[in-house]
Every structure is written in structure tokens, then in C-alpha cells.
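Supplementary Note 3. Input sequence used for the single-chain structure prediction.
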Amino acid sequence: MKQGFDDIIAKVKECGRKTVAVSVAQDSAVLEAVKEAKERGIADAILVGDEAKIREIAASINMNLEGYEIIDEPDMIQASLKAVKLAHEGKADMYMKGLIDTKNFLKSVLDKEVGLRTGGVLSHVCVFEISGIDRLLFLTDVAFMTYPTLEDKVNIIKNTLPVCKACGIENPKVAPLAAVEVVNPKMPATVDAAELTRMCEEGELTGCIVDGPLSLDLAIDPEAAIHKGATDRKIQGDADILLFPDIHAGNLVYKAIVHMTKMKNGCILTGTKVPVILTSRSDTFETKVNSIALAAVVSEQMKKTSK
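The predicted structure, written as C-alpha cells, is reproduced below.
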């Protein structure tokens, strides 16, 4: 049975209502997504920012602010710190970017006193429901880590596993991608992929199945595996996690999927104390709502794991 965001939203309703803290909430696109998330029972929200502007925008989109906590802070930097502090103190289950530039938003995430550091590596995960593919695909890292080292790739995988588990995938298949399926010392991505595979086989990396290097077609298309005679591989077109060698490869594939396929997606930043919703202004309304739902189920999974 095909998995999708309807299943993720159904899981949200099983784990109880969550709360998202919104940094600099005077943003019409973000408020529309927050409104939809509340109406669909996905999450409540604490809106931090310029209250007068929040109320003005809310009126323009017919958003009833009764039932929302609003913290008035016109200064954007201070608003981001007050919002992230809510997540830091456990008063919010996730943290979302509003009308603030990414650089200053991330500064609040990394703030030593009130931020969401865990001491580990931060990485970005994008979850796709794509027409013609019978499962969710987890792409990482397509937006945050530029040139990950082997150690970084290990941490990226570890950051992605709870996201998979939250979506119902207990032992995901990880495809470290490259242009070819064989190790070539002149192509560092293939060397890293082979080492990640070895680490998994020898128990240094657990909770998943790693098989690389793999080309993209072998990772996602079972027929390609048959045509290429790759039926002895652990992954034969059925990968769950696509691990990219660098941000260029990841970002290009991400944008190709978004602009050339029929799909739904949601994205979060992981490796943080709570899930962080770092959407782009170009992301659709639906993507923002899906990202809140994804963050909600991951938040529940993180709480189960910590217990």
C-alpha cells in the first residue's frame, strides 16, 4: 500500500496535539499554514513577533486568533530568541521559521543559552510522496550541509533514522548515491559510500541497511536493477533514504522532483533538541502544512526514544 502524507497526518492525530513556536510570525504564508494545521488538528501555535502586524495579517486571511498565544516582540532577533526559548524549555514541541532571514533564524537555533543544540551535527531531511513511487522517499542533505565528510554522512544517516521511524519505517534502506555503482578511488563519493556500507555490515552503524555506492536509478527503480544485473544488491530499486554526496547533487534532484513531478513534500532540520521547520518562501502552502505534520510525528518519536 502506497505511503503518503495522509498517513503522516493520521499518525499526528494518534500521538496527540503538538505546539509549534513560530519565530517572527508576521508572515501571511506561514500564518495560513499555521491556521490550516490548527484546523486539521495537527498542531497549535504560539506566535512570537509584532502583534499588531500579526493581527493585521490574520484579519486579511480570515484567521481567528482566539485560542492562539501571541507574544508581542517587534524586534526580529529578540522575537526569534523568545520563540526558540519556548522549544528549549519544552513549552513547544517544534520550532518554525517565519518572516526572518535564514541566517538569523539559524543563529537562534544554535544559541548557546536558549537554542536547540544537542552537541551533534545538524542536517536537513526532505520527505517526498511522489506519483509512481510506492513509498515515501527521504532525501538528505539537500539544503544545509554543503560538502559532508564521511563522519558527517554517518551523522546525517543517524539524524534521518528517527524521521523514518516516525513515519513507520523501522529499518530503512539507505542508498549513498554516486554516478556509478562501483568504487573508483578517483571518485571520493564512491569511496565514502563503500565505507558506509562496511560500517553497517560490521555493526558500527545500526538501525538501517546501507548499500553503496549506488546510482540513482538503481536506488529507486526495481526495473533498472534487473536490467543492470544488480539483483545481488541489498537495495534493488527500493531505497528509503537517498544520501547525497554534496549539496549540489541533493539540491538539483530536489528541485527536479518539485518542478517536474506530481508530488507532495515536507522538510525539517534534524539533529536539534526538537524538530525545526525551515521552509523557503518559495515553498507551497501544502509543503508548509506537511512540514508541520512531519515535525509533529518526529517530535513524538523523539519523546518516545528519550523515555
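The radius of gyration is 20 Å. The CA atoms of residues 49 and 75 lie 7 Å apart.
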